[in-house]
Amino acid sequence: MSTGSTQDLACKEVVELVTDYLEQALSHDERTRFEQHLALCGGCKEYLREIRSAIDLSRKLSRGTLAGNVRDDLLNLFRKWKAG
Amino acid sequence: MAMDSAPVESMAPGERHSSENLGTPRSGRTEDLRLAAAIQAGDEKAFLSLVERHHKAMVRLAGAYVPPGVAEEVTQEAWIGVLKGLHKFEGRSTLKAWIFRILINCAQFRGAREARAVPFSALEEESQEPAVGKERFLEADHSRWPGHWVSYPQPWSEERLLSEETLAMVAKAMDGLPRAQREVMRLRDVEGWTSAEVCEALEISEVNQRVLLHRARSKVRQAIEPYVSGGTR
Asked: Up-side HSE of residue B13: CA atoms within 13 Å toward CB?
C-alpha cells in the first residue's frame, strides 16, 4: 500500500495516463496513484494544466458562420427536394 | 454503401454512455424527432438550423476521406441523403450521429472511387510515440528518480496563451496531425462531441479513440510549448 510516495508512478508514465485520467477511464487504483503522484509532483501538475490549456485553446477554433452562397446552395437543394 | 441504407439499423444508442452534456437523452430524442418531422414537413428554418449547426464540421470531416476540392460537394450529397432518408430516422441514435454517419458513408463511397478509402483506425498511426520526448526524463536506471522530469515544465505565460499567435499555432499543429488523430481531436475538442458520439460516428472503439485523442493533444501541447513557456528554448 502506497504511503503517497511518488516512487509508485514515474512522471514518464504519468504523462501517458493524462488522457485516460481526464476521460475518467482509469481504474479506481490507477486514479488514486495518479492523484497521489500529482499531489507531490509540481512538474506533472503543471503538465496536466498545460494539457487542459491546449484543450481550451482548441475549443476556440470555432467554425464561424456559414458563407452566404453555401447557405443558398443548400436552401436550393432543400427546395428541390421538397418539390419532389 | 448506398446512403439510404444508412445507419438507422446499426446505430442503437449506447445506453451505457449517459450523456453528460446533452441534457437528458430522452428530451434530446424528442427534440431530434421534432426537428426531423419539421424538416419533412418542409420547414426551411428547421433545415437551415441543422445546416448552420453541422455543415462546416461535415465538410471538414469529409476532407479526411476525399480531396479537399470535393469535400463540399460530398457534403451536399450527404444532405440529399439526409433529406431522402429522414422518414426512416427513428431517434435510436442522435440526429447528429445519424447525419454524420450518412456523411461518412458518402465520403467513403467517393473516397473509394478516388482510391482514398482508408478506414479510420489507430493502425495508420505511428505506434508508441511518447507524449513527451524521452530526453525530458531521467533514465530508467537513475539511482534516485528514475523516469522523473529532468526539469519541470515551466508554467505558461497567460498573456501568450491568449494571443492570436498561439491560437494559430494550435490550428497549425492540428492540421499537421495524422488524419485519425486530427479528426478525433477536432470532433472532441473543437466541436465538443462526447467520446460516445465520436466512437459511434467514426466506428472506432473507446480505447482506440482515447489513444488517438491522447496522441493528438500531446502533440498540440508540445507544439505550442516553446512559445507559451516564454520563448526560453
From this structure: 20
**SS3 at position B137:** strand
Greatest alpha-carbon span in chain A: 72
Candidate CATH numbers 1.10.1740.10, 1.10.1040.10, 3.30.70.20, 3.40.1110.10; the one for domain B26-113: 1.10.1740.10
- The tally of domains found in chain A comes to 1
On whether any CB of chain B is under 8 Å from the CB of A40, the answer is no
**How far lies B209's CA from each of A56, B74, B197, B206, in Å?**
19, 25, 11, 5
Count of A-B CB contacts under 8 Å: 132
Report residue B216: phi and psi, to 5°: -65, -50
Distances (CA, A) of A1 to A9, A33, B35: 13, 10, 55
List all residues 6 or more positions away from A56 whose beta carbon is below 8 Å from its beta carbon: none
Q: What is the C-alpha to C-alpha distance for residues B217 and A52, in angstroms, rounded to an integer?
A: 9
Count of CB atoms situated within 10 Å of the CB of B9: 10
B147 interaction partners in chain A (CB closer than 8 Å): 10-13
pTM for this predicted structure: 0.81
Render pLDDT for B79-115 as a digit per residue (tens, 0 to 9). Answer: 999 999 999 999 988 999 999 999 999 998 888 776 5
- The shortest C-alpha distance from A30 to chain B (Å) reads 16
- CATH assignment of the domain containing A46: 1.10.10
Greatest mean pLDDT among A57-71, B13-27, B195-209 lies in B195-209
Residues of A in contact with B192 (CB under 8 A): 59
